[in-house]
Fold this protein.
Amino acid sequence: MMEFDGDFESDLPREELWKYFTDPDVLAECAPGCDSIEMRSPHELTATVAVGVGSVKPTFDVDAVVTKADRPELLEMQADGNASRNAFDLVAEMALVETDSGGTRVDWAARTEVSGMIASLGQRALGSVTHKLVNDFFEDLEEKAREGQPAESKLEAKPDADASLE
Amino acid sequence: MKPAPFEYHRPTTVAEATALLAEHRDAELMAGNQSLGIVMANRLATPDHIVDLGGVEELDGIEERADGDIAVGAMTTHRTIERSDLLAERLPMLPEAAAQIAGPSVRNRGTLGGSVGEADPAGNYPAALLALDATLELASAEETRSVPVADYFIAYMFTDLGEDEIITAARVPTDPFPPERTGMAFLELKPAAQTWPTVSAASVVRVDDPDADDPVIEEVRLALANAADVPLRVEAAEEALEGEPLSEETLDAAAAAATEAADPEAEMHADREFKEEVAGEYAKRSLETSYERATDGDSTRSDA
């Protein structure tokens, strides 16, 4: 199992950012390598995502479930992705913390099991790339919020959901 | 294993190449094909389209620009760089770095742009170009832009290069490197002759007066390869040396700074601690060599 964490600071209030984090259309635009996202229910998403390292860039079919959504503080998702010769299982959590200046600090953490070719690249290589991709995601999303692109919170937690890596 | 089926494109101009990238979203660029072919044969990468830059002549060659910068085209091979008289005289670090890449067959086909595009942190040009404060010229179908090497390498094999962009050239300023009082060195430790280095150290030293008894270091640059997940510039080592003649004390301080800055990944043949130690030792040897070359009034390799 690999674990990653980090934080991102924004001067936008968390109520405002929350709408963007929970709007699948915004996620589709900002998620790195994302080709498409479909909302199957308010707590289930399917997506096609091409991410990797260097020229090793598998296209994953991803199923994600929202396991916690405590507006505007905490969002947790569980996801699994499958590609040719690669797979991952992931639990990702974001805590939105109000800062003294009224902005937001996003504390994020992810636990993942990766198998296949990508796994052979090693934890430090993946960690290095993961941080870059997550930051890009937050920056793109914040920019959409700053530009005032409309967003609507559509995601809810699945009732009685419990996130765990099997 | 054989690679998965793909469509092969061989453009002859940069415009044609960037148009192909704009058209085919999952296309991979192929330069000298000393790395991508292996990855594809092992089916680690299965792109549907390959854009081979081997026929794009405008990407090949080394030229001095009107402003004194030297531009090395992305498709220039290691062998051409190794043998360039212009580079030997003005930017001898590049021929020295090129000469130590793998073996002759790889050097005959491998290219500068391929190495910079792959962005393996163990690569020779990424560290050398970082030490030389080079700028990369990039082109897409829409626009061309320049990115300082220091901003280009973002994470392990991850760069600022867009999916629709190609590297056209690396541009190196020559102003900071007057040959009569500049020395450069590229040193690497390898577990075996034709393989990747454990750690490499690239350095440039410019002194005030090579004929003085103790020439003072005016400017120094140090970059390490394979000591972190990106090529690593060690500014603390540079600060330890600038404004002083070379002494054992300042050299030791620079080596300690290199060891401190290194954040290497353990490999089969070298654990973290060993690589940190090598980073310090090779930083020291490289800086010492650069200083010697700067003070003997000839920036080129003393053995050349």
Remarks:
- The longest strand of chain B covers residues 199-207.
- The interface with chain A takes residues 26, 28, 36, 39-40, 43-47, 118-119, 154-158, 229-230, 265 of chain B (CB under 8 Å).
- Residues 187 and 201 of chain B are 5 Å apart (CA to CA).
